[in-house]
Amino acid sequence: xxxxxxxxKEYDLKSGKYVKIWQGPQHPGxxxxxxxxxxxxxxxxxxxxxxxxxxxxxxxxxxxxxxxINCFPIVCRICVPEPDTNxxxxxxxxxxxxxxxxxxxxKWIRALNLEMARxxxxxxxxxxxxxxxxxxxxxxxxxxxxxxLLDSFEELTGGRxxxxxxVPGGVRYEIPEGFEGRLEKTLVKIEKLLSDIDKVMFxxxxxxxxxxxxxxxxxxxxxxxxxxxxxxxxSGVSYDVRKDHxxxxxxxxxxxVTTGTEGDVYARTExxxxxxxxxxxxxRQILAKMPKSxxxxxxxxxxxxxxxxxxETYVRAESGRGEYxxxxxxxxxxxxxxxxxxxxxxxxxxxxxEKLAEGNTNxxxxxxxxxxxxxxPEIER
Amino acid sequence: xxxxDIVSPFNAWKRAFExxxxxxxxxxxxxxxxxxxxxxxxxxxxxxxxxxxxxxxxNAAIDLVDVASVKAKPGDSGLRPLIDYGxxxxxxxxxxxxxxxxxxMSNDYTWISENSDDFRFIPGIDEKKWNRSEKxxxxxxxxWLVDPNRxxxxxxxxxxxxxxxxxxxxxxxxxxxMAEAGRCLDCxxxxxxxxxxxxxxxxxxxxxxKDLDEGLRIMYETNPMLEACGRICTAKCxxxxxxxxxxxxxxIRSLKRYIGDQTFKKKDEIMDLKPAASTGRKVxxxxxxxxGLTAAFYLRRFGHAVTLYEQHDKLGGMLKWGIPDYRLPxxxxxxxxxxxxxxGVEVKYSVKVGKDISFDQLHKENDALFISxxxxxxxxxxxxxxxxxGVYSGVEFLEKVAKGEKPFVGKEAVIxxxxxxxxxxxxxSIRLGAKAKILYRRTEQEMPANREEIREAKEExxxxxILSTPTKIEKLPSGxxxxxxxxxxxxxxxxxxxxxxxPKEGSxxxxxxxxxxxxxxxxxxxxxxxxxxxxxxKWGTFEVHSDTLRSNDKVFAGGDCQTGPDxxxxxxxxxxxxxxxIDKQLRG
Lengths: 381, 588
Hints:
The structure holds 2 protein chains of 2 kinds. Chain A has a single domain, classed as Cytochrome-c3 Hydrogenase, chain B (Orthogonal Bundle). Helix content of chain A is 44%, strand content 13%. Chain A is globular, with a radius of gyration of 21 Å. The relative contact order of chain A is 0.18. Chain B has 4 domains: 118 residues, Alpha-Beta Plaits (2-Layer Sandwich), CATH 3.30.70.3270; 114 residues, Alpha-helical ferredoxin (Fumarate Reductase Iron-sulfur Protein, Chain B, domain 2, Orthogonal Bundle), CATH 1.10.1060.10; 158 residues, FAD/NAD(P)-binding domain (3-Layer(bba) Sandwich); 145 residues, FAD/NAD(P)-binding domain. Chain B is 30% helix and 17% strand. In chain B, the strands form 6 sheets. Chain B has a 6-stranded mixed beta sheet with strand order 8-7-6-9-22-21, with helices on both faces. In chain B, strands 11-19-12-13-14 form a 5-stranded parallel beta sheet. Classes of the chains: A alpha+beta, B alpha/beta. Chains A and B meet through helix 2, helix 5, helix 6 and helix 7 of A and helix 1 of B.
């Protein structure tokens, strides 16, 4: 394939025409966990180089030195806003390689958990998108509403941020009594929030003028850049792991994959609003369709010396940011030989961001980053 | 862009008039959810310091530390978990693995201190506001990471097995052994409880790794009678097993037997024992039971010349003469003894010290002596009619059975006693064709015999008559025995902690039987202790230094003859200990 970007631009810094500035890695938010080296002419970005590695915690390597059960509490830490996908994928890979079948009810609860996590992360993402364009109120609303979901998580899993609920073999414990009703109240609140966001963000002259046409991704970039998730769907590519490679019980749920056409920041954000509504819909479907009783966990004997037969597998799931993948290699010992974590934004946050930043203004760079759902912790597993 | 896009954002103001979801200054602390994983709590009395929490913690946040208020005892290491909250990730795997269920998490999550050391503490010992918290995460039976059910060894049906003396327990299959080994938490609380301190977790791990050769080598480090112990050991280890607190303990004894069963054919090859360099010193051992054989094995490993004096024509002591074949087949015992003898032990069979050879001569000929003659004489009951024909002592009866003599049991046999000898006598008389009735002066709960033995005896048809004791035995004209008995009641607990039986006035009753077997205890042969002139205790056992088993200059004593009648594993432990201290003395 012909490289779509083979750039050798040179800029003479001594000419006084350009200025080079660094953004990050000092900021605690997702856009500041990595560093951007920006070359500006006035306010216009001429060249962007991304630098990652500041958040490297070596999860993949840590896993090679931990027994399988001991990996489960650390994988969730790869992604703070949506840790459950990691928990699920690690468990799914280990279960597949060791031939463990999980109970039917556990599959539904896992899907419920994943949808709740996606909803929480996407709502907060909308707030982040608004915030990056100066609409701070929406950011506060979004974070508050994510907190309501965290209350539900706390009730269901015993933890607010890192749930550590999906374990190899199923889920840790039963859904508490009356949980469905309390979750429904939160869903109603979020629906109201989304309708407010419609009025205040999507029908907002500021947001529209700044995001429409910004960082447009043509459809033919999707494959070469490896773009996925809502970012790809906003450019008209219909790919959703839940639909194309159904896992857990997604084949028993009724939903359609929505796509956009424009591929700009506005289209991506709009699609994420749709995603929130879809998650709410799926949560309701799951609660209605799931088996009402039954075991939630398959017992794994000798968990402290759990040996998984030699083999390898790639498992994937649709996270809020696109396809999340775990590639696990086992050698028959008590430790994974290799676990490779493919975070969805890995392909967005470096080369694609560099390409998209060019010609845009310094003020828009964070808006672009959030719209690409860049997430440094999953670049540096 | 339209006018609507300018006006619409003002909708945000609507929210300003709504009831806020949050308040600026929280008046009260928000409580965590019922399942919240907050600071740990630990029920110190329930905790046994097994260290499973420390083992599973992936952050190394837990250390087991010595706690002044807790004393170590069998089944309790005396240590308690100290948790470092700078490392804890609140995953609660420690709670999910905890075998006793003592560890939990409260729903408390706020705690402020300027001193960072305050975030390392021992839950349950250090006073914290959440120590008595009812809420928070606890593991349920379902979330326990350990399988509470043990594997059951295949056994021959009671109706079939009671017809002969064949071994009825078939040993673990490979699958059963793997499954059972998989239940072990490697905590090692059993090592201390085992008299000879066998490294149980290590050999169980060998099974897990399918390296039974290594398992055999590990076991020989502490016990050369492992095949016998794999069948008849009283398994003190299983009594303290951590998993036993909330489920069935690991079948440690059966796993030991499994390794022995799988490896005995290639034992010489696997062990590959090279003779140790000779020290030129000579040790005489009197009595070829488990204590004497064990001492002989390790003394040979140390390089001393060993001569064993055995009064019978076969070795094994109580294992040979006191335990029937259906529990410990003669060929299994013999092959194990043969392996010990192949290490170069000289045996003088049918030699009774004090009669065939003088003790003084042995004393002169050897650099050290180990006395392990056991407690071979059955104790008599101080009642009338003990000398009546048809009244046996338990050991006497079992010895006859072991020799294949088929002693007379008639149609009905009464066995007096509640220990393992009583159970052996009961089940042997059943196999010889009698109906067996056990008389025991306390209740089943107080019976010192293994629970398994009692259960199996009942399965085979033994009748248990508790709270009863014989007071007189007479011979009836028909040739049968008339046993006069008295009912008992349980009084205050005695020194052993068991409630002592008190006779109930006027509760006499009679039973008839063909034989009566008295299995109420054994003692050391008094003539032997008199001949050799060593110090004895008031119970007739040899008095020795409790740590070294040394009696005088070069004489050591151990096993039943020193402790009084006890189990095989204690004898093995005494043999190992004696060998160590004899070696130490001989090397100066």
